[in-house]
Each structure stands twice: as C-alpha cells, then as structure tokens.
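ENTRY TYPE: paired fold submission
RECORD: A
CONTENT: sequence, then structure tokens
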Amino acid sequence: MNCSYRLLPFFLLISTISIAQPSVKAVFASKSPVIDGRLNDEAWTYAAKIDQLTQREPNSGQPVSEKTNFYICYDTNFLYVGVKCFDDPKKITAKEMARDVSLGNDDRIQVILDTYLDHRNGYWFQIGPRGSIGDATISENGAVFNKQWDGLWEGKARIVADGWEAEMAIPFKTLGFDKYNPNWGIKFIRHIKRKMEMSYWPTANVNSYKFQVSDAGLIKGLNNITQGIGLDISPYIVGGMDFKRDVKNKYVKKGGLDLFYQITPGLKASLSVNTDFAETEVDDRQINLTRFDLLFPEKRDFFLDGSSLFSFGIQGDDANTYGKNIIPFFSRRMGLDSNGLPLQINFAAKVTGMIKNWNIGVMQVNDDHFSGNSNFSVARISRSIGTESSVGVIGTYGNAVSATENYVGGVDLKLATSKFRGNKNLSLIMFGLKSTTSGLSDNDLSWGGTISYPNDFLSFSLGHYEIGRNFVAGMGFVPRTDIKDTYGNILIGPRPKIKGILQVLTGVGFNHIVNFSDVLESRQVNYSPLKIRFKSGEEFSYSINNNYEYLEKKFNIFSKYVIPVGQYEFYRHTLSLVTAGSRKLAGDFSYALGDFYNGSRRDLNLGINYKVAVPLFVGVKYKQNEVSLPDGNFTARIYSVNANILFSPTITFNNYLQYDNFSNTIGIQSRFQWILKPGKVIILAWTTKLSQPLERYVMDESALRFKLKYNIRF
C-alpha cells in the first residue's frame, strides 16, 4: 500500500489540472415548447445555440460533416433540448422506434448532464430520428455506464425535408443535482451511422471514454429550478394465470407499491413492497462447457437503479474483465433461486446517492429464500478524491449459496486521471476483502490490484488478485477460490491513412492462475495479430488462444460426458466478421477450431438481423459447439429468434424464442408494452416452456401476466 500513497499526490496533481471549459448561458423559456418533434416553437428562436461540433471518428479533430444545431433552454420544471440534424432524408439510418433499444446501428444524438459538476458522474439521454429514446447513468468518469436506468422524461423526433429534428423535455424532478450550484456540465454528441461518424461538443478525444464526463462544457445560470418535494408513488396491480402440466391452473392477483423520496437533492430513498418483475426480459440461454459458474447480467429495474454505487474494486473498470471473478455484491443473489427462477420479494429498501464528496449505497431485501437466508443487507460508501479518484468500503450480510451465516467487508482505492500526458487515461485500483463464515476460519481473505492505460493508439493493463480457499461471498459472485491470478494485456491500434480502413489493431493478453501451493492450474494466452475496423462499419479479426488446464477433479461436460483428471494444453484459432449495422440485412459470424482438453472442438456463431420495415424486426441467432472426446462426440446447439413489432415509440410488441438441445426445451416470451405517459405503463406478458417427453413438444408450464403501473409525482 506504500506505493499507492506515493502515487496519490501525482494522481491528484494531474487530475486537478483545470482547463477552461467552453460554456453556454442558460436561457429561461417564458413560453415552454410543445414536445412534438418540430422546432417551430417560439422558445427555440431565443434558446442558446451550439453548432461547433468536432469529429472523434473517422476524421479526428475535423468539423462535423453535416451541419448540426443544438438548442437549450429551461423553465422552472424542465430542461429543454432541441436539435436540427441537417442531412439527406433518403440517407438517414433510422430503423428503431422502441424505448431503450440499442441505437448503435442508427443515426442519433446524445446529451450528457453533469448535474453535480463533480466531473465524474452524469446522466445520459439519447434519441433517434424516429423517436426512439433511451437513458442511462454514468459513473467513474465514463468507465461505468448503466443503461438500465429509466428516467421519466419525454422526447419526440421526426424526419423532415432537410434532415431530422428532435425535442427533449427532461424534468428536474427526474434528476439529482446541487440546488445551490446554478452551473452544470453538459456534452452533446451526434452519430451519423453510414459514415461511422461521431462528433462532440465541446471536444472530441479518441483517448477518452465515449461518455467521459470530465471534458464536458458548462451550462451556466440554471436559477429558480425545482425538484418539487421529491416524492414519487408508483402503485401497480398484476393479474394473470399460471399453467402447469397435470396441475390445476392457478390464478394470480396482487398489488404492490414503489416509493421514491428525494431525501436531499443528491440522496434518494426507495422502498418496494411485493416487488414484481413482470416486465423483465428473460436471460439469454447459455450452455456451460466449463467447470465454473456462468455470470448472468442483472435485468431488474429496482436493482439496476443506482447499481453503479455498489461497484467495488476492479469490478468498477469496464476495461478490465478480470474483475468479474471477484464481485463481493451481486444483486442477482436476491429474489432469484440457484436456477435463476424468480422468488417472491416481500420488500426491498435502499438509499442511494451523494452527499458532497460522499457516494452512498445501502440496501435491505427480504425474499422467500430457503430458511435462515431470507434477509440480505449491503452497504457501500466511498469518498471522492480530486476529480477522478476515490476510496471506499463495502459490507454485506447474508448468504444465498448456503445456510451458514456470512459477512463480507472490504476497502478499495482508485487513483485515476484522464489528463496523463495531456489527454491520456491512467488508473490504479487496489482492494482488500475479508469474509466471516460460520464453521470456517483462516484463508478467508481476498486482495488485488490493477493498473490500466486504456487509450486509443496504445492500451495496456497489468493486474493481480488472490482469493483464499475459505473466502465466501454469500451475496457476491466468486466462481473460483484458492487461486492467485496474474493477468495483463497490451493492444496497439494505429489509424493508417489507407482508403476504407478506420483502424488496425494488434495485441496479446495473458492470464496465469496458480493455487496457494503455487501449482499452475490455468493459463491462457490470447494472441490477436489482426483486427481491422473499416470505415464502412464492418469489422474483421483473427485470434489464436493457447490454454492450459490442470484438473484435480473430473467434471461433467454436457450431460454424461466427462473430462478426466489430468493436465491439458490446447490451441484454438478464431475468425470473426461483423457487418455494418446500418444495413437492413446485417449480421455477425465467428468460427473457431482447435483442441479441447483430450479431444477437439469447433464453434460456430451466427447472427442475422433483418429490418423488414420500420415497424418489423426479425433477428436469428445460432450457436453451435461441436466437441469430439475419447468417450464420444456431442454437439451443443442454441437457437434464438426475435420478432418485434413497433407500432410507435410508445407501443411495442416483442417476441423471443429460445431452444437448446441440452435441456431440450423451447422457451417463449411475448411482451406487449404501452407507455401511456412517462411512468404510466400497461404490460401484457406471456412466458412458456415446452418440453419433449415423447415424440412431440408439450407445454410444461406457462404464465400470463397483465400489469398496470402508475406513477404519481409530487
């Protein structure tokens, strides 16, 4: 730790170097604009105007290729943003309309608000040419991006004769901010997909995170704005029916309540009673060909709101995937059983937000886990240091993996700057954890650290962590204990002036794992000799993987097949191609082959997306793992189909079908959603599972739900 203290002044000095921020004066709208996607209201004629955007890609530092005008004004209750994107309407890429879908393959504009002016946290809003809107929260100065956050706001857009126009109305009640500071950070972004173009105001830096907050401009003079009393009441009712083969149908009817109260401008309390997740999407199926548990993402809104405040250690750095092996708090442990099936959540309460330089996340949940393990508690507190560094602690109580009592406590330190050598990113993260579990003692520590230099031309990281044999994270995700893991990677990405090529990347990464007896258990070396990003939007890559595994115990792989005890070393080669997402017919393809333990393996991944018309989308995915072993051969397959109908940006009908030949079951989810107004939603959801006990598929179980949710804001 002495090293960290020596480095602290260096990071603080660099991170606090101030560069004058471009600014714009906030204009109060005496008459508020009507949000209809047309910039014909009087308010836009006197609103502040920003039109000097700069390209990040493909021509870094050059002006935006198509004229772009952003407008901004406000009244007591709303911040209004308007945008005029000049373009040929026949060339605009606009395939999506639904809320919160990915617009990565569409033209779009984005707005980032640093409401606390802390240069590290923010809100992100986006809208596409057909009115599809999305939002997210940003933390760690852009390193952590939570797109599952849903704010209550309104946005409309439409394609016009000389391009497209959009309007946003963002209620101040939706945002946390310092009411004593009239100045906020603000950033504008425009994407022109067919040109692979990203343009920013006030600045564009290829080394920065795409949604970096510290280099935002300023909007000054947001006076006389209000959050109201900060109370949201969201009651809901659910009705439906559960069907099970050979079991009498069960009628479901229940109600619940979500309460949100803004304790201070930056601190929010949330309470959920009889929590329901009828609108939650199903998990993507995976077939596990490893000896360790798989990590599934959190998709439930209650746990996603403010989730970044609970991030700890190297988990908080998205550029470092190795942190996924040591997560002290993982919200999917609550309200779900070991198979990922929902459990009744009786109540859930949390306090999240900021008080000056302090970041706070506290949560208590009671669910219907097995006896003795129905209550879960977590507290995460960190303090900001300078503009980009922090120090914090975490504590958890509860055990979702066994009946024994479990506590986990830890401390972490992050030293970071986005101004190293002028405009480069550099970070150092260290952490320490201890668990206390009934019946276990000693060897219950985990610690580690990583240094990262994630930049455009040169990117590298180097790290190490250790997990003791008796370390137990009862509310976390730790697939492997009794290990010492050293890892790193380096990637070089020049941008040659060759027609049609945007960037060429090459690099190598490694992962070296030994146990506490210093016996080598796993080693991976990943060579990436070539990856090409084309200006058309296509990507091509080739990689070679060398793997070593030492098995002290045999393990089952795909039903009856067994990998015996022994030492194994094998190579794999992978080719992949991704087509431009702006095309009506787009897709991705990868093929891998090589050895696999004491046999061989070939993998095929294929995805095809077809935008039949603006309202209709069809997507097909196929994954195949063909394995040959001395005991025999098998092929694992997963099929999935999406068929979505978009009636309007607020009325959608999504259908998802999955099949895998391991479980030999078909899963279907259909979900109709109608957003009457922000916060007022009607949902009709149907899920079913079909199995094949004989010669034909029959319905094992099915659930039908109707949900009405209503938000009342004070």
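RECORD: B
CONTENT: sequence, then structure tokens
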Amino acid sequence: MVRVIVDGTPVDVPPGSSALQACEAAGKEIPRFCYHERLSVAGNCRMCLVQVVRAPKPVASCGFPVSDGMEILTDTEVVRRARRAVMEFLLINHPLDCPICDQGGECDLQDQAYGYGTGISRYQEAKRAVTDKDLGPLVKTVMTRCIQCTRCVRFTTEVAGTPELGLVSRGENAEITTYVEKALTSELSGNLIDICPVGALTAKPSAFHARAWEYKKTDAIDVMDALGTNIQIQARGGEVMRIVPRVNDEVNEEWLSDKGRFSVDGLKRRRLDSPWVRVHGKLHKASWQEAFVSLARRLEGVPGERIGAIAGDLCDAESLCALKDLMAELGSSNIDCRQDGAWYDTTSRAGYLFNSDIAGLDDADALLLIGTNPRHEAPVLNARIRKQYLHNGRGAFPVASIGNTPVDLTYPVEVLGDGPAALADLLAGKHAFAEVLKNAKRPMIILGHGALTRPDAQAIYEAAKALALQVGAITQGWNGLNVLHTAASRVAGLDLGFLPGPRGLASTNMLRGGVEVLWLLGADDFALDKIGPDTFVVYQGHHGDAAAKRADIILPGAAYTEKAGTYVNTAGRVQRAFRAVFPPGEAREDWRIIRAFSDVVGHALPYNTQEGVWARMASINPVFGTGYEGENTSPQLAAPETAQGEWGNKLGSTPLKPVIADYYQTNPISRASPTMAECSRVYSPVRAAVAAE
C-alpha cells in the first residue's frame, strides 16, 4: 500500500492509484466530467484539478499517479480559482436551455456550475453551434451542449465494442460524431445516456415527458433476459416512464441492455385489463366471478392427468409456486416451465446454473461458447466478456465458439465448427483449442440454448461436462461449466420443481393434445398451431399477445413493474423486485389470481399473503429462504456417468443455431413496444446483411 496525505489526513491506497482515487478514499469529493471509474482515463475536462505539494501548478487528479508520502490539497484558493476558470471555459459555448433540457435535475454540469460557476460570462464573441447527429431511434442528440469529455467515445469503444463514435477536428471545432451517417448498433447504446455528464445525449423515446424530480423510484429486477440486471423503475402518476440501471458489481456492474431500458412503452399497450370468456366462439368481457365459475365448470369431471400448465419466460417465482400447488391439488403433474422444450440436468442445481457466477468471468482465462450468442441473449454479460478480453490483453484471453453465430460478438472469436462434431474433436484432442483450455488456470465453458433445445441436448451437455472435467474447468474452488439461460423465470421454475412429475407430460406433449385443459401462465413464445384444436386454453398474462387470441378464458395478470416478485438469475442468485405502479383495470398479481381461483374450485391453497407464499417457496427449496441477494454456492460437479462412446454416438450432425432471431422482439412486452418495433425495423436489415457476408 502507498500512504498519501490528503488535506492533512493520511490514507493508504493500492500502488498505481490516481490522486483522484486517493482523495475519494479520504472522503473528499472531487468534481469531474470526463473521468468514469469503468472507462479509461482521458484527462480532457481538467475539472478534477488538485494541488500537490511541491508541484509547480495544479494537476489533473484523474491521471496523476500517487507516490509514497505525497501531500494533496483539495480545497485551497489555488484549486478553487483553477476550477472556476475551467468551469467558465466549459460554459463559453454552452446553450442556456436548461428549462427544456431532459438532463435537468440529473446534470453534472448543472451541479458543478452551482458550486464553481460565476453567474456571468466574460465571453463576448459569437457562440458556436454544432449540428445534431442522428444516432438511431434510441439516443437523442443536442450536440451544442457537448463538452467533449469523450465518455461516449470511450464507452462505445471499450465497453460496447462498437467503435461508432469519435472526436473529429481540433480546438473550438472539435465535435463528437459518427464516422459515417448511421444508427448506433450496440445493444447497450442506452448507457450512453447515463454516462453523458451533460444533456448532449438523452433518451429519444421519453423526450420532454417528465422531469427527473417528478418520478417515484422503485428498485426492481429486469426480466428481458436471465441475467437479473438490477434496475430502478421511475414512474409518475401511475405510469412507468423510465427504467434505469442500479449498480451491482456482482451482476450487471452499472449497465443495462437497450431492451430492458426502452421496452417500457410496451407496458401500456395491448394490455389485458379485464377477464374474458369465449362464448359460442367469441370472446366476451366478464367479471372475475364469471370467469372463475366458467373455468371451474369446465374442469368438472376432467381427471388430473388431462389438465396441464405451461409457464412463460417472464413469470415471478410466486406465481410459479402458486400454479404448481394448484395443479397438485387438481391431481395433475403435467407442469413445465420450459415452453421452448429445453433439456437440463436437474439431478443437482449445478446442472442448470451459471456456476462460476457472473463475476467469475473476471477470473476466467479461456472461454468456450457452445450454442450461444451472448451479445443477443445477455448483452451485459457479453460486455463483461469483452472487459475480460481487454483486461488480459490481446491474445491472453482466448475465446472459441461452436455453433453458427452470425453477429460480431465485439471480441475475437475462433469458430471451431458449427455442429456438435467440433465438441467431439475437442474431447479427442484433435483441435488445438483443447490444449488452450488445458493450459488455462481457470477455463470456462458457456452452454447456451442453441444446444439445449435440440434433440441431442443431453448428449451435448454430457460431452461438455466431460470436456470440463478433462481440461480442469471443474476443480476444487472453481466450476467453469455454465448454462446461460434466456428466460428470466427459468431458474426459479427449475428450483421450484415446475417440471413434469413421474408420469407427467412435458410442454411439447401437452401442446400436441395430451391434455384437455391447458393453463398458459404468460406462455406466448411458441407456434399456436401446436395447440390441439380441442384443447381448452386458459391464458393468464398481461398482454394480448398471440396466445391470448387462442384462449377460451383470459385472466389478466400484472406485469413485472406492477407486482412485488422474486426472480432467480442464470447464476442462481435470488433477487426480489418491488411494485412500482398498480396493474391496469381489473388485472391482479398472478399468484393472487391463482389463490382466488383455488377457493372457487374447492382446493384452497394454504396461504393468503405474499409472506405465506415465500414460506411455501422456502419449504420447496431452501434457496428461497436465504433472503434475496442470496449467495450462489454451487457444488462441485461429479464425473459423468455416461461413457464417452455412448454420448458420442448420440451427437447430432446439424449446426447449432441461435435461439433469438430478432433481439428486439422476444417477449410480449417488447412485441407491444413501438420503440422496439422501430429498432427491429432499423437494425434487422443491417444484421441480415452482416450475416449474409
């Protein structure tokens, strides 16, 4: 450690720390614009000036390394005068449009001007103006407000991996622009809005809708993928206006995917706000009592083995628990949380988790991707992979892939093959990357749903498991065999045992007419023609998506922003979200709907409160009893029981294909969002052209 004296207070910091980091360790707040703790140091703005004893002039603390015994002064007249001069310089060309700027109330320049501004300007010449840039449907630009801090340039280059912004010209003529006139193509572009310290980059869909101080802010969990990104829901007057990320270094750091941020307008469109009952082939609006009585009558005389339930991708753990209990009361073991028909090793929790945890990527030194496209399936996780690639240096973090991945993952990837045969070659030592994995101290394998939704999914998993054991990806203290889920509800469903019982039917069999009554809990992402024509369908969900059109009874549920709920991310981390607004109309929380119906059908569930549901969830699986933010303590995997020759013969020959065709259209909320529809229109042709090359 290095001892530094900050304003007379000694503080110990790691070697290589900057003066700014030393000052913050001592509890001193240093103003800054260009510095960001997750980006490289630029030293552009000079707002972070401090005085170092025996230095001839103030220094930019963000890029000034500390040394043992250094004395730093943060609040002298020299420092204050220097900061006031910098602030005056930054405000020379800045427009006086704070009353109409969407950044108002969240603007770093506003805050620092309050502390270091003079109130008047000595600048008498004409102010310059900069042409606004069209960055696509998500990010709005007012480039005259830009102070050239270059945070956006560094973010797109370093974090997003899409270097589409740059600084051109010099001096007064310098401006941030795109190299060519085109929209930003990153799935993380919305984070530019958060890191911009002024109002140069703001959210285009929510422009001029509300002020920052008008929002009611609620902590929640993003459900657009399985990463469990920590978010804050900002609402006004019963309407969700914005969704922004919260900092959680173990999960998402401080980033959020564009789909999680901008699909918010889909929450108020195509909503189901009252029960519906189909009479003589047509759906009619009904009361809750009428819908429940109609469903109860339809269930009369139907044996339990002819009733089934399929859960969708956005469900909370509470609704899964309640529906499972109801099905058990009705005598049915036909339940499934896998509407895509995926296969998992459910003999232990480690068989279906991202065992190393998301933060484990920071420790990995080699990576193999099997049947996954993390850029679309989990953009924030993909950024973490890129971060590790940059941190280790070129070539020090080798990444290979098995499967057809038609997009640039933002880091170099060696494609070993498009089918499972490449996995067999690795096991046999026929490919050089096998030695790369063996020589790595902490190799990692990520298995995606491009592999797990195939007929040979079990064989692929067992082969990957055998490879992990062979190359040392599973050792004492390290489990690098990871499953990357795409559905926010999937791990909770597996933890709760929302799977077919000993004689129960899986989702594919239920859809083929294996049941008379089929309960769809937010299950929308499958072809409707798979449902048998004589199957009576109950759809419980929050959007009038495809499945609602096929339903005989519709029960309106609450979206994730409208209920308190528990979600388990792909790494097995239990997290809890809270209600930001109330559901529209007659819609209710899903577990309460199921509980109320259980009374009508004569099989009352043994809980009436959410705390009671939590207790029931904990009795099914202890992971739900550890509180939210539970630790992921996956056990070490055992050696596979199946011999190599057996699974080798079962491996298919067809290529592994990505499971997400359109990143912006993957669930009922995103499909209802005009913003996501516009993104799909803008970006899909671009990606199709890239894939064809």
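NOTES ON RECORD B: Residues 329 and 603 are 6 Å apart (CA to CA). Residues 216-346+506-620 form a domain with the Rossmann fold fold (CATH 3.40.50.740).
STATUS: closed
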